[in-house]
Amino acid sequence: MSASTTPSSRPAVTEREAREVAEAAREQHWRKPSFAKELFLGRFRLDLIHPHPLPADEAAQRGEEFLAKLRDFVETKVDGALIEREARIPDEVIDGLKELGAFGMKIDTKYGGLGLGQVYYNKALALAGSASPAIGVLLSAHQSIGVPQPLKLFGTQEQRERFLPRCARTDISAFLLTEPDVGSDPARLATTAVPDGDDYVLDGVKLWTTNGVVADLLVVMARVPKSEGHRGGITAFVVETNSPGVTVENRNAFMGLRGIENGVTRFHQVRVPAANRVGEEGQGLKIALTTLNTGRLSLPASCVAAGKWCLKIAREWSAAREQWGKPVAHHEAVGSKISFIAATTFALEAVTDLASQMADEDRNDIRIEGALAKLYASEMAWTMADELVQIRGGRGFETADSLRARGERGVPAEQLLRDLRINRIFEGSTEIMHLLIAREAVDAHLSVAGDLIDPEKSLGDKARAGANAGVFYAKWLPKLVAGPGQLPASYGEFKHDVDLSGHLRYVERTARKLARSTFYAMSRWQGRMESKQGFLGRIVDIGAELFAMSASCVRAELLRSQGDHGREAYQLADVFCRQARIRVEELFTRLWTNTDDLDRKVVKGVLSGTYEWLEQGIVDPSGEGPWIADATPGPSQKENVHRPIR
Q: Which residues does the annotation mark as catalytic?
């Protein structure tokens, strides 16, 4: 195939082919223990997270010193209201962050970075994001999923020496996977990288390129055609944004995060040296997924910051605002919301710090923990922000500028709600996270019994799978009957002025119940299990609550042992666990009592036009145009809005 060849149409992909591409990209083996994986199998391995792991003293000192510098910078140099009004981070702020070393937080010191671990990197993101969420996104997109992380994990030494010093101090990076017609289904990726001598030639269009408008370096996922000497497949490349043929065609605008530099990037006959390929051909999706295992932890960090701010504003406002003769905080309807915000913020910080420290130690496989942290934090932070708006009443719906204009404190509660909404979509939507986590959670079952429920397997394969499954389940199922959660004295080290041991016994019992429910569902639906997305989502949500309960108790005990607000931490953990148990019981009820089947019938009716009469009586304010923009490869017809910051 010549370099000038371009695809005539987007790849046609069947549902099975799409699943096979996703399956091939995931890590196939578990080389290290996983607390969350064991939890879904009904085994409560508290020993994997307790005692709570901690950063080394030297790492903690280096992290605290940087946090002090960063705090001074964001307090004196960052005007979050200005960024919101002008929808842009001032260049001088970005330059100041570069000088501070904020773009190299996760980069090793030998390449000019700060060498922070995940724990302090997340604390820094939370701090910067509290000043302006757009700054948090700028920094995290650059080094959580941009060039530094893939090169750290998969790059050659030569690539690290070439690019990491630039990323640490001067260059901004971005990650480009999504396309106008490709979201969570990468099998349909249309951007191509055609081998041509010592180069690859890129053609295609990428959408929602966070940092793409200002980026100097890009990680681009493209499909290499299979040919002689080339295994082909989705492959990762480092691309210089100033390369001929790279055009940033649009700077996108959103309901929130108004200062982010997110765009549409077109590649037309862009020559990329083979030396810029990251990993082998066909490893692109595996690189992306592995990068996201820890990269996703930046989103929980921003959610923790949001929860802390929600709690601060709720406390101050609810003490000052009086209704019917007393502060609104003393009215139960408002007080319950404040309690939820306080307890949930404690839990989110517990989950984020625990998962981050586990990532730093690298003793455990945290692919499920990282995904659970992202899923749970994004959903709970949104709920907390919504509750804050409700507590603030009309002032919660009013913009900060409007509040200031009429002489009141400019509290951007409505902005927080808008800014947080994308977290339920970013880096794996809630729906996709449910499926991703569910797949990992049932991995042990599929590894021994997968052939039994695969309609394309032969009778011989099914017979062998049946024998293997019989051996596995004969050992596994009896262990789900009884455990430490039924012994009153279990987890006694968590019993102090407030008793958390009962919550851990509940987690142990419930983990076994969760595993039994999963097994029953697989027995009942077999090959149809993958279509039961409502059921799988609830299974994952139960696991997320159990993980958060475990992390909260372990964090409370850590703080108690350190003499650092231990009594108060125990109180918050207790309240959170009690609230979580109510949610868990509701989710268990909804596993089997729900409207999933009826919902599917209604959806068919909606799509066939059966209920079209229900849409009458309105006008549609949407503009004209296609649902999905044309992404046909070719030269750009638009002005290049790329603006590197130097």
A: 427
